[in-house]
Amino acid sequence: MYFSVGNLKEVIWIQYRIPVDRQVLLVSGGECLDSASRVCNYHAGTDTNPIFLFNKMHIEGSSPNVSGQANTNQIHMNYGSNDNLTGR
Predict the structure, then answer these.
(1) 34-88 pLDDT, tens per residue?
(2) Mind listing the domains of the chain with CATH numbers?
(3) 3-state class of 12 per DSSP?
(4) Distance CA 61, CA 32 (A)
(5) DSSP-derived 3-state class of residue 68
(6) Direct distance between the N- and C-terminal alpha carbons of the chain, in angstroms, rounded to an integer
(7) Cβ burial, residue 39 (10 Å; 0-12/13-18/19+)
(8) Whole-number Å distance between alpha carbons of 80 and 1
C-alpha cells in the first residue's frame, strides 16, 4: 500500500490538529511535497533525509523574533520502516 502526501497531511491533522491547508511539507533542498504525489517518490522521511513540516498559522501569526534566536518546534513522527512505506 502506498501513501500519498495528502494522506500524510491528514494524519498530521488528526494527530497534531494542524489544518491540512495550513501545512507546508518540504524535503531537504526546499522542494515542496505535492499532495497528489506518493510519499515514497521523495525518498525522504528518514533520520538522514527528514520531511520538514511548517505550520502556516504559526508563521503568519508570529511576531518578529527580536532576540535573534530561532523559534523552532520539532515534531517527530514514526511511520515505520522504509519497507512499510514502499509496500514490501
Answers:
(1) 999 999 999 888 888 999 999 998 777 755 555 444 445 555 555 554 454 444 3
(2) 1-63 (3.10.20.90)
(3) helix
(4) 21
(5) coil
(6) 8
(7) buried
(8) 13
